[in-house]
Write a structure and sequence with these properties.
The chain is built from 9 helices and 9 strands. With 255 residues, it is of the alpha+beta class. The strands form 2 sheets. The chain has a 6-stranded mixed β-sheet, sandwiched between helices. Helix 2 packs across helix 4.
Length: 255
C-alpha cells in the first residue's frame, strides 16, 4: 500500500505543468507562475506585483481576490492551486526539542499548545504546521513550527476561493526562498546575474526522482550552504527577495 501511495504521489507531481506561488511584498503581493517545458526543468512564466489600493484596510482582501481572478483568467481559466507565504506580522515561528524516543504522533498536541501560547489564542483557534530538523544529536529531535490565527487563514482561503483558486499550502518565506535558491539553475550567481523573469529551476534539486543527463550534471550548483545562506540574506533585502519566495512557493508543487 505504501509503495502504491508513493507511486501515486510521484505520478501526481509528474503531471503538474504549471504551478503558482504568492509572496508578501510590503503590504502588497507578488504572484509567481512557473511552467515545466521539459521533465526536469521549470522556468518563470509570470512574476508580477499585485499592488494594494491606497489606505486599504489590512483585513480587506477583496482587492487581492480581484487580482487573482484576473490572472486566473489570463492563465486559462482553470481552477489553479496556489501555495503562499503569509506576512511575518501574521505568523509566529519557533522550535521545540523533543526527546528522541517520543513518538511523532505525540508532537502534534505539544506544537499546538506552543503555537497557541505564542499567539495568545485558544488551541482550537490556531492553524499550524511543523517539520523535524534534518539533523539531531541523537538524544533530542528538534521540530520547527509555524502558526497563525485560524480566523486569518480562513480569510485567505475565502479570498482565493472567491477568485477561483485553491489554497493548497502555506509556509514561511524563508522555506520558500531556500527551495528556490537551491534549485536555481546556475546557483546563487544567477540571483545577481539574471533578471528574475529569466530564472530557471532544476526539479531534480528538489529531491524528486528525475533522470539527469551529462549536460544537466554540468549545471549543478556547487554552492555551499554558507554561500546559499549569505546570498539569501542579501537578496531578501532587495526587490528580488519576494520574487524568489514566489518562485520557491510554486516549486513546492513538484517536491
Amino acid at each position: 500500500m505504501q509503495a502504491w501511495v508513493q507511486w501515486w504521489q510521484r505520478w501526481a507531481r509528474g503531471s503538474v505543468r504549471h504551478a503558482w506561488g504568492l509572496a508578501p511584498l510590503d503590504g502588497a503581493w507578488v504572484l509567481g507562475g512557473l511552467t515545466r517545458p521539459i521533465h526536469n526543468l521549470a522556468k518563470v512564466q509570470t512574476l508580477v506585483a499585485l499592488p494594494a489600493p491606497a489606505d486599504v484596510d489590512a483585513s480587506d482582501l477583496s482587492w487581492l481576490s480581484q487580482h487573482l481572478r484576473q490572472h486566473g483568467r489570463l492563465g486559462g481559466g482553470a481552477r489553479h492551486r496556489l501555495n503562499m507565504a503569509l506576512p511575518l506580522a501574521l505568523i509566529q515561528q519557533g522550535y521545540i526539542d523533543f526527546p528522541a524516543d517520543l513518538p511523532e504522533e505525540d508532537w502534534v498536541y505539544e506544537v499546538q499548545l506552543e503555537v497557541a501560547q505564542a499567539l495568545q489564542l485558544e488551541p482550537d483557534a490556531v492553524n499550524f504546521d511543523f517539520e523535524p530538523a534534518p539533523l539531531t544529536d541523537g538524544l533530542v529531535q528538534r521540530v520547527h513550527w509555524m502558526g497563525c490565527a485560524q480566523a486569518r487563514m480562513a480569510d485567505f482561503k475565502s479570498c482565493t476561493r472567491a477568485a477561483g483558486w485553491r489554497l493548497a499550502a502555506v509556509e514561511s518565506e524563508l522555506q520558500a526562498a531556500q527551495r528556490g535558491a537551491r534549485a536555481l539553475r546556475g546557483g546563487v550567481a544567477s540571483l545577481w546575474t539574471q533578471a528574475p523573469q529569466d530564472w530557471q529551476f532544476r526539479l531534480d534539486r528538489l529531491g524528486g526522482p528525475v533522470a539527469r543527463s551529462e549536460h544537466d550534471a554540468a549545471q549543478v550548483s556547487v554552492d555551499s550552504e554558507a554561500d546559499i545562506e549569505e546570498a539569501l540574506r542579501q537578496v531578501m533585502a532587495t526587490p528580488g527577495g519576494p520574487r524568489l519566495v514566489a518562485a520557491g512557493l510554486a516549486l513546492k508543487a513538484w517536491q
